[in-house]
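User: Fold this one for me? It's Probable molybdenum ABC transporter substrate binding protein.
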Amino acid sequence: MKKHWFAILTVFCLMLTACSTTQTAPQASEPAKTDAAKVELMISAAASLTDALNELKTQYETEHPGTTLTFNFGGSGKLATQITQGAPSDVFLSASKKDMDGLEEQQLIAKDTRQDFTKNSLVLIAGNKSAVAISSFEELSNAAIKHIAVGEPETVPAGRYAKETLDTLKMWDSLSAQMVFGSDVRQVLTFVESGNADVGIVYSSDAAASKDVKILATAKPEWHKPIVYPGAVVSASKNQDAAKAFLAYLTSDKGKAILQKYGFQ
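Assistant: Here's what I get for Probable molybdenum ABC transporter substrate binding protein.
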């Protein structure tokens, strides 16, 4: 009888040992879980590029599944200041040479990656339902015009070009009391769309993106400095290769096609 109980106890112990081994073995041999490398690129871009870049984002991320594009849109001057102050950014897309030059002088961009990727023109706009009846910048002194929306010249390239244009026409000082300043060109567009300004000065690409405004006139190129958009990789970027790949795509035929679709040259 004792032998019988001893045999049962022995079998029971062996079963416990086997169960313990079965439970712990997978834990010891289970490989560590690893995710494929993912890159999130922070793109600091001029506000006028908003629509074009949002479309490019969808196309780019589809073709580059390991990369996510995040945009920080605003006036080029403000974006340059943010980068100077250490704000995280991988790529800077400026609407003016001046703001990019400032970062290059401080060695805050990778100089060898800098390139001009598109151009634009300056236009005078009014709301679609506006009764303003002028067809040139020279007519901005019309008594029917009470408010003129422009970008802040110190931080918004479109505002800087607007000031250069009106300075050339010797009208800036006489119209200054009527100016309504926007923090970026898209805010200027909104002022006109909402009727808070009778007219506004924006890029042709902004006017093309809105169904609520009409173009009254186009500024002559000689009235202002060339509207050229330079792009570059930010020196402090931890994703240099991915940032260079994005710039290469932006300047490729696919990137150019999207820019042209949204009124860029």
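One thing worth pointing out: The first helix runs from residue 2 to 29.
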